[in-house]
Recover the amino acids of this structure.
């Protein structure tokens, strides 16, 4: 009678044969300590020593997130910009019948089918760009030639974008002025003016004088319109007849987005957002406190 097969024997028979290692190939584990092997490539972005200006810029941004920002300063974060990635949940401008329209890869705010974004606004401003030095020289040469020939030169005042903080303020305050060219119709304010105290009072003045105003990104973009490095605020007094319909739509949209929501912006504080580590610690403390409270209840 043949012997019965046991489970142990079958388990031993199934055991895998040991891998044959060539003794010529020695195992040499790398030591990544000081003076050892070069470490594997990884993202060293956080160890880069950035220029001082970039460091200050980043610290300022983080500080604005951490500290509680008063409403008067926080309103400058609500800008009209096509690159502002807002959706219906976190966009302070979209309510009711307002639409979110994708425009050239960015976002534009639409109100009752009349869209408005920074692109359409800046296109209009560029139409009324003031003359630069070369254009002024050419105009004066033509005028001198016309006068030399005995012709009457045309000296009609052109319609251009006004700039300069004092000049813009003067135009805003001309409510009772009958001359339409000396009265502000639209004020565009930069969001990143430094120091911000220069323009922090301007939205309140515009609302008091019932002049549509908007806050856009940024001061260098406004400066490029008027041939300057930067500009704190721009102003339009009037437009040509062919642009009046477009201008009225822009004014209506801006008034709905900024002037009519002034009370809402006046109450909304900003900042108070802690870092990821701080948030994790707070959540851990809350969990411990909740656990202790549950034990006391039991």
């Amino acid at each position: 009678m043949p012997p019965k097969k046991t489970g142990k024997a079958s388990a031993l028979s199934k055991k895998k044969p040991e891998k044959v290692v060539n003794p010529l190939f020695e195992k040499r584990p790398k030591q990544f300590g000081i003076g050892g092997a070069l470490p594997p490539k990884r993202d060293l972005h956080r160890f880069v020593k950035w220029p001082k200006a970039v460091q200050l810029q980043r610290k300022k941004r983080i500080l604005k997130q951490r500290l509680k920002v008063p409403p008067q300063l926080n309103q400058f974060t609500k800008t009209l910009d096509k690159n502002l990635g807002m959706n219906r949940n976190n966009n302070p401008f979209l309510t009711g019948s307002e639409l979110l329209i994708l425009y050239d890869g960015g976002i534009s705010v639409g109100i009752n089918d009349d869209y408005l974004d920074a692109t359409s606004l800046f296109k209009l401003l560029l139409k009324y760009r003031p003359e630069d030095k070369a254009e002024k020289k050419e105009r004066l040469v033509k005028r001198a030639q016309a006068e030399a020939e005995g012709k009457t030169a045309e000296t009609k005042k052109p319609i251009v974008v006004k700039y300069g903080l004092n000049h813009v303020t003067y135009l805003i305050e001309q409510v009772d002025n009958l001359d339409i060219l000396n009265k502000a119709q639209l004020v565009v304010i930069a969001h990143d003016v430094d120091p911000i105290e220069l323009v922090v009072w301007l939205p309140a003045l515009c609302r008091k004088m019932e002049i549509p105003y908007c806050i856009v990104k940024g001061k260098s973009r406004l400066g490029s319109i008027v041939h300057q490095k930067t500009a704190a605020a721009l102003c339009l007094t009037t437009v040509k007849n062919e642009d009046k319909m477009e201008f009225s739509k822009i004014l209506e949209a801006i008034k709905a987005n900024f002037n009519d929501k002034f009370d809402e912006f006046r109450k909304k504080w900003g900042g108070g957002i802690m870092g990821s580590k701080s948030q994790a610690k707070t959540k851990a403390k809350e969990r411990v406190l909740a656990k202790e409270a549950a034990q006391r209840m039991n």
